[in-house]
What does this fold into?
Amino acid sequence: MGRGNVLVLTGAGVSRESGIATFRDAGGVWEGVDPMQVATPRAFAADPKFVWRFYDARRAHAASAQPNPAHRAIAAIEATGRPFLLATQNVDGLHERAGSKKLVRLHGSLWRVRCTACAAEHEDLRPKLEPLPPHCTVCGAMLRPAVVWFEEPLPMIEFGRAQFAAREAELVLVVGTSSLVYPAASLQMAALESGAYVVEINPETTSFSAEANEHLAGPAGVVLPALLLAAGIPMEQVV
Ligand code: BJW
Ligand code: ZN
It folds into this structure.
């Protein structure tokens, strides 16, 4: 303790005020589509074009969205220069666009594609990919979205960095996640066990609320800027 390390863990709720649907709320992504039909390796193997159409629509939507005050507040905490890490479950790229640099993507990115055969991975910022499914320019095999589906392991280096940060942190902010999806949700538990002060920011109570040291009930885009104001951290200095 006393190290001043800050870890911010984010989920889909942080992008809600940018107009991007969460997964499990009313009107969420999983209300319109069964996750087992689009977010598993089996679903992709069975119907790659269907899965790609789903991700193409998500890319188009994310491309037209803008970072909100919650994304900017998180970037502003990093900009103070204290030891910091952001570990996000989000794939939309809005944290990066708000100026966050010290971040790990636990569930991959909508803006990266990976070859199903040679494992070549690269950035692809086009909001729409034509024709679907896209193919690898190295070996010709089919490309897949570089996101983490159910039953797939999280990227080892990224998850390792987040685990280390959870054990080192003095303050952890858990923002906009239902804390239902593992192993991401184990990070806040690890932080608690290591003695961090863990604050959950979410308009609803979650499975984690009773464990957290504090629950700040409200939208992230309101609560985070208010916290920064109280802490004397300027919001404006970030790119
Ligand atoms: C606001 C707000 C505002 C609203 N401000 N807040 C039992 C059965 C079967 C499987 C399992 C099981 N137990 C554990 C598992 C494993 C599984 C899992 O956890 N399942 C649970 C759902 C039960 N996990 C996995 O499979 C993971 N891999 C794994 O375990 O590997 C080991 C293994 C290997 C081999 C075999 C078996 C295991 C991988 C998980 C990958 C998750 N992938 C997704 C899709 C990513 C790609 C894509 O985007 O399409 O990641 S699922 C989806 O959920 C997405 C999210 O990152 C993730 C978390 O969701 P999140 O962000 O918390 O969103 P919501 O909607 O749940 O919550 C939003 C919150 O925001 C709410 O609380 C709102 O109140 C709040 N909010 N407005 C602040 N303005
Ligand atoms: Zn290839």
Q: What stands out?
A: The first strand starts at residue 6 and ends at 10. The pocket of zinc ion (ligand 2) is lined by residues 115, 117-118, 120, 136, 138-139, 141 (CB under 6 Å). DSSP finds nine helices and nine strands in the chain. The chain has a mean pLDDT of 96.
